[in-house]
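Example 9 (inverse folding). The structure is encoded as follows.
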């Protein structure tokens, strides 16, 4: 107990004392406690990925006010660091999760995330924002986000897709509420108090998550330390990790710049900020339906075509020059990108033993994080060099298409035939 690792009591105190709850082959796959875990993960994702998904509003606000003398590409590094660090700590947190460490790291990161959100309201210079909002908040979100995926893997197997899909709606909920709240509150109470209110909102959602989330299976010390390099002997896992890295090079470009592109083509600033919330709100449908469909048809059979549509929307986005067309792009892009984010972890969980879920997922998410880190600034640099959004769309859409090709390769390596559920 003194080393911070959950005891056997903590692992099982909320579960009926039956063989089903202590076996790695039998999963609850439902029931009040299991669905309460999903509800806690919804709150967790709203506080982390949902909060980070609001970055597009901050990008526009900083460009127009607090950091108006800083280039868009440079400002974009704040958001891209956030995005990448949601994934990057997964290498460490995943290993700690497999070893049984969950409650203390999760609670500590939750407290620090609230405090750091308060501190963002006091930032005035670029280096303040990159350090506090980019690095520190990103790390805390990553420390919280990764283990929640592993928690779902402990409680669901046959219905894992729908469970992860519902859990991922938290990102949509947070990504819808935080941009609207931020945009509306700043003129009323100022930027510092807006961030304090966001901090209080996080205090509520993370408090609930800390109360209900718990592991089910006993900890296992699998050999290999932080890395399980043997997992890369599986060509499908290797190709899948590379596909995530390449897809994330372009996946967040639309979400980061759609509000700014709308302003540039004459859409009212009073409406343009809603585009980020529309995209995030629409992703809720993609996350839920994607999760259900992955259980029925197989995650890769769902992931591959939906990601291809995301590429198409990314190509189309720069050519949307009216409020109506931008809304259509935001809705469709939100649905398919939401499917990608919610379904992405499912094949990773299935590519190995359940006792190694945290470490294997952590490695894949860490690789994807590099793409999430580099993508938006590359897009911003292209925008600065060309003075428009068309080249950004071509770049981002092309990287997503390449990611789709690697997803199809992964499917063929696993299935070794053209048709089948995988």
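The amino acid assigned to each position is listed next.
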């Amino acid at each position: 107990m003194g080393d911070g690792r959950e005891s056997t009591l903590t692992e099982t105190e909320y579960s009926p004392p039956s063989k089903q709850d202590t076996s790695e082959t039998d999963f609850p796959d439902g029931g009040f406690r299991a669905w309460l875990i999903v509800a806690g993960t919804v709150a967790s994702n709203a506080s982390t990925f949902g909060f980070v998904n609001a970055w597009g509003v901050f990008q526009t606000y900083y460009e127009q006010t607090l950091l108006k003398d800083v280039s868009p590409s440079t400002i974009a590094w704040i958001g891209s660091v956030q995005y990448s660090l949601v994934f990057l700590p997964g290498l460490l947190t995943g290993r700690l999760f497999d070893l049984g460490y969950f409650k203390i790291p999760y609670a500590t990161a939750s407290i620090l995330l609230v405090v750091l959100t308060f501190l963002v309201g006091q930032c005035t210079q670029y280096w303040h924002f990159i350090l506090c909002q980019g690095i520190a908040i990103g790390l805390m979100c990553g420390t919280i986000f990764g283990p929640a995926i592993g928690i779902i893997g402990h409680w669901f197997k046959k219905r894992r897709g729908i469970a992860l899909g519902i859990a991922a709606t938290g990102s949509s909920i947070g990504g819808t509420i935080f941009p609207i709240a931020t945009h509306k509150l700043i003129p009323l109470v100022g930027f510092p108090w807006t961030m304090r209110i966001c901090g209080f909102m996080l205090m509520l959602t993370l408090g609930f998550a800390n109360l209900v989330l718990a592991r089910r299976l006993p900890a296992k010390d699998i050999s290999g330390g932080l890395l399980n390099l043997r997992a890369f002997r599986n060509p499908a896992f290797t190709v899948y990790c590379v596909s995530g890295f390449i897809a994330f090079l372009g996946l967040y470009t639309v979400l980061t710049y759609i509000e700014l592109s709308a302003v540039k083509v004459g859409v009212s600033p009073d409406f343009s900020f809603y585009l980020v919330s529309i995209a995030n709100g629409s992703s809720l449908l993609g996350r839920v339906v994607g999760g259900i469909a992955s259980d029925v048809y197989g995650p890769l059979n769902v992931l591959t075509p939906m990601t291809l549509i995301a590429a198409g929307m990314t190509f189309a986005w720069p050519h949307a020059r009216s409020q109506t067309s931008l809304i259509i792009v935001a809705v469709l892009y939100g649905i398919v990108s939401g499917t990608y984010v919610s379904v992405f972890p499912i094949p990773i969980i299935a590519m190995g033993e359940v006792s190694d879920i945290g470490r294997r997922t952590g490695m894949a998410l860490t690789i994807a994080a590099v793409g999430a880190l580099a993508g938006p600034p590359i897009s911003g640099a292209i925008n600065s060099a060309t003075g428009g959004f068309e080249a950004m769309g071509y770049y981002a859409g092309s990287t997503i298409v390449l990611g789709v090709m690697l997803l199809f390769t992964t499917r063929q390596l696993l299935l070794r035939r053209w048709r089948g559920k995988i």
